């Protein structure tokens, strides 16, 4: 009888441990779900195509989505505060157009890249000021910035500007690999991964990062605690703007040219990747690592669609379906957390 009691006790203790882990790490559940989906997609694609999970394809996954990964890091900061930034695609196009124009006029790269980053930061600051000091909703404020940035891109030039600067093209053309057919990296991919690491370190190990989470969790409580809410939210939008400017550099290197219509819809792809990666649209919960997984899910879907040879509209349909699933999962998690906290 004592042995049975011990077994029941052990089973109950194990179940209690699992329950305690889930309650303490509920914010990681969507991230794990995104990882499972990514692995399942890779396994399924490999089984169907036979040559999907190869060093070349996996390398291209990072190479083709480096700019999106950078945008996703900046967007994670904004969404964690409970905001949104619809201007990132247009800012990427504007900074890319201006940078390409300056390069075509002989301006040194050492001047062009900082100018692109500063302009991105100023656009982000513009959105943050509208939100914080004028009480404009983030959706409307960033929408206004999106139209402004797109208009500025057209003011630079109505046509495409080809980039022939070796230093910019080097970012994309250089392949760093260990041997024939092995996994390779490009400077743009390395730059994107560095941005991810910096984003993780800031959010997880700095007071600024903890304040970001506190604001997203409950802004009023954050104010009552004496946290610098206004400054933090402004900096979140500035970070998003800087990431958009840096994405402008990376995307210009990726395409070898700039066009005022570049980046249309990219802001929605970025938001989708961040949400699929587990960041709550209401703020307060999410991780840069999850956003990176979300970008890879997006890239894997796009690559699989290309392998199938069907219309790329199926990428949008699939992403939309996944986005719906993850939003529903998030709502269920929030509701369950609310019930547990009562």
Q: What does this 3D model show about the protein?
A:
The protein is an all-alpha fold and 342 residues long. It has a single domain, classed as ABC transporter involved in vitamin B12 uptake, BtuC (Orthogonal Bundle). It is 77% helix and 2% strand. It has helices at residues 2-24, 29-49, 55-64, 66-80, 88-104, 109-133, 138-156, 166-173, 187-205, 207-217, 219-224, 229-255, 266-276, 288-308, 313-341, and strands at residues 161-162, 176-177, 184-185, 257-258. The longest helix is centred in the C-terminal third of the chain and has 29 residues, at 313-341. The chain starts with a helix and ends with a helix. The model is unreliable at 4-11 (pLDDT under 50).
Examine the secondary-structure arrangement and name the CATH architecture.
Answer: Orthogonal Bundle
Question: Between the first and last Cα atoms, what is the distance in angstroms?
Answer: 38 Å
Q: Please list the strands of the largest sheet in the order they lie side by side.
A: 1-4
What is the H/E order?
HHHHHHHEHEEHHHHEHHH
Low-confidence stretches: 4-11
- By DSSP (H or I, 4+ residues per run), the number of helices equals 15
Instruction: Tell the overall outline.
Output: globular
CATH class type: Mainly Alpha
Helix content: over 70%
Protein name: Ribose/xylose/arabinose/galactoside ABC-type transport system, permease component
Membrane topology: Multi-pass membrane protein
GO cellular component, one term: plasma membrane
GO molecular function: transmembrane transporter activity
